[in-house]
């Protein structure tokens, strides 16, 4: 009983570190999911873009929603938002604080997926191989090709064994070029996300710190009250 | 159990070791990130410099910001800097000490990335292969400058058909790698000497002031942590009292509406008192409904009368 009470107290006093732990686990799971995922570009002109962008954007959306589902405080927020006023006022600042802190934690796993995908490069290679600047990178031969034929040949760049346009543009050159762009985008995305998170965290003490402390106290109170009542 | 309690107490009291642990893990993560990252130089004249320098400088910036986000100390230092004066004076020396100690530790992971990158050499070769003087290398000497630029840009890509059989490609690569590693080791040596001097010489200048600033910066950090913990404890007790008052007021209401006077005398005996007067299904349902539709006010200063 004493053991149970101690663990309970630790988890309750350290609700934030518990939620941060879940957040970290989801981020690692997101990276692991990407490495387990067998990316397989269709190498067909219109399908490439859809597949590449789909793999880049749909799993992060799923991970974001999963982040909300796995957070215990979602039901506390929903209840607090939808309850009748009763004899206790409702504080919109507190609701906003709860929503923001949940959204911030839920955004970590999607951001990790997008970063890992961009740094790996396969997605961007698949999605944008038909948009390569052939005049700048190409070998300058086979001029009489129609646009459709050109796109059909370029779409096969991600599939090495099927690619037949070596005279048009070397496969390696194209892969390196698109991968460089993808990795540059990836690092810029990582920098942007960390900068945004840093600004949100550090600008808060400059504006309305007292209001923030109030919202934090009352959101914690709502959470405690619900748990004790249950 | 004793061990668990001891570890818990240690972690809670010694936030500095926890912080150092976090930064150490971040440095290890930086090494792992570099080894997992698939460096792929574009081998196109203008893109090489951008890519090479980007990989050398952008991840350290992101790692620095990550380091400042992961621990509580940067926020505590900023909070102390921006707070209104109130009834406690602000000591600029303490704020400076807090900021500098935070920055020093946050710089470890970025510096580790930069040093590993330089010691590995791929980044440097990619960024500066186009800046090498072609006359120094036989394979690039007797061609037009434009052609030399094209070929030099392809040096980082070993399997490219244009430079695959060029005997000077390896020479350029080794030359640039030598410079890169020399730079890496020099930076490492300078940083270690600077850290050594700072650590050893600091107590020679005003040791008493140093002790004071260290004490007060630690105090500010712990005070903030304990305030947050006390707020959590307080909200828990407040919630408990609020719920007890709610049950009490529901009991009174039920008594007012109930005409069964015998119950009044028999209740408050043993286990029945734990039920707080709510003893049947309808009363429980009414209690739960009231809890949702009419939350009680946040005021436990007196027993709430309905």
Automatic annotation (TrEMBL), chain A:
Gene Ontology biological process terms, A to Z: ATP export
Pfam families: Ca_hom_mod
GO terms assigned for molecular function: monoatomic cation channel activity
Subcellular compartments: Membrane
Transmembrane parts of this sequence: 21-37, 49-74, 181-200
Membrane-related topology note: Multi-pass membrane protein
Keyword list, A-Z: Ion channel, Ion transport, Membrane, Transmembrane, Transmembrane helix, Transport
GO cellular component terms listed in the entry, alphabetical order: plasma membrane
Sequence similarity: Belongs to the CALHM family.
Protein name per UniProt: CAHM1 protein
TrEMBL record, chain B:
Gene Ontology MF annotations: monoatomic cation channel activity
Subcellular location(s) per record: Membrane
Recorded topology in the membrane: Multi-pass membrane protein
Keyword check for Transport: yes
One GO-annotated biological process of the protein: ATP export
Transmembrane segments: 52-72, 182-201
GO cellular component: plasma membrane
Keyword terms: Ion channel, Ion transport, Membrane, Transmembrane, Transmembrane helix, Transport
InterPro entries: CALHM (IPR029569)
Family: Belongs to the CALHM family.
Protein name per UniProt: CAHM3 protein
């Amino acid at each position: 009983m004493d053991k149970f009470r101690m663990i309970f107290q630790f988890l309750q006093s350290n609700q934030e570190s518990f939620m941060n732990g879940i957040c970290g686990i989801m981020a690692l799971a997101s990276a692991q999911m990407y490495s387990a995922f067998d990316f397989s570009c269709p190498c067909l002109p219109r399908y490439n873009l859809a597949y590449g962008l789909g793999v880049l954007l749909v799993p992060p959306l799923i991970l974001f929603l999963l982040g909300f589902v796995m957070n215990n405080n979602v039901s506390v927020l929903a209840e607090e938002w939808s309850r009748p006023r009763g004899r206790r006022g409702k504080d919109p600042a507190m609701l906003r604080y709860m929503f923001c802190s949940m959204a911030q934690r839920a955004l970590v796993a999607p951001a990790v997926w997008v970063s890992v995908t961009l740094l790996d490069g396969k997605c961007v290679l698949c999605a944008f191989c038909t948009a390569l600047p052939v005049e700048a990178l190409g070998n300058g031969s086979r001029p009489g090709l129609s646009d459709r034929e050109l796109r059909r040949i370029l779409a096969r760049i991600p599939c090495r064994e099927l690619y037949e346009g070596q005279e048009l543009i070397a496969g390696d050159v194209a892969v390196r070029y698109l991968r460089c762009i993808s990795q540059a985008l990836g690092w810029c995305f990582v920098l942007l996300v960390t900068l945004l998170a840093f600004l949100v965290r550090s600008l808060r003490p400059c504006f309305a710190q007292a209001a923030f402390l109030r919202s934090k106290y009352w959101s914690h109170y709502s959470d405690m009250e619900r748990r004790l009542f249950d | 159990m004793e061990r668990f309690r001891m570890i818990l107490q240690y972690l809670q009291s010694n936030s500095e070791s926890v912080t150092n642990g976090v930064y150490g893990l971040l440095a290890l993560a930086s090494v792992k990130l570099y080894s997992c990252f698939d460096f792929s130089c574009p081998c196109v004249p203008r893109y090489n410099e951008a890519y090479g320098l980007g990989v050398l400088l952008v991840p350290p910036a992101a790692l620095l910001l990550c380091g400042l986000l992961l621990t509580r100390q940067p926020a505590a230092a900023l909070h102390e800097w921006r707070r209104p004066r109130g009834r406690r004076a602000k000591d600029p020396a303490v704020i400076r000490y807090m900021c500098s100690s935070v920055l020093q530790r946050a710089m470890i992971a970025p510096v580790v990335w930069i040093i590993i990158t330089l010691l590995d050499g791929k980044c440097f070769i990619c960024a500066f292969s186009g800046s090498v003087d072609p006359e120094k290398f036989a394979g690039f000497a007797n061609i037009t400058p434009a052609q030399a630029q094209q070929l030099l840009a392809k040096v980082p890509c070993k399997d490219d058909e244009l430079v695959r059989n060029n005997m000077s490609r390896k020479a350029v690569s080794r030359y640039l790698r030598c410079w890169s590693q020399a730079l890496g080791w020099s930076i490492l040596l300078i940083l270690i000497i600077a850290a050594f001097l700072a650590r050893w010489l600091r107590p020679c200048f005003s040791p008493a002031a140093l002790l004071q600033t260290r004490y007060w910066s630690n105090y500010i950090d712990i005070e903030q942590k304990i305030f947050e913990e006390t707020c959590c404890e307080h909200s828990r007790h407040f919630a408990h009292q609020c719920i007890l008052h709610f049950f009490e007021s529901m009991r009174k209401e039920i008594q007012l509406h109930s005409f069964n006077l015998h119950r009044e005398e028999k209740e408050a005996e043993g286990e029945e008192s734990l039920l707080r007067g709510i003893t049947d299904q309808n009363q429980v349902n009414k209690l739960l409904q009231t809890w949702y539709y009419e939350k009680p006010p946040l005021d436990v200063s007196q027993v709430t009368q309905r």
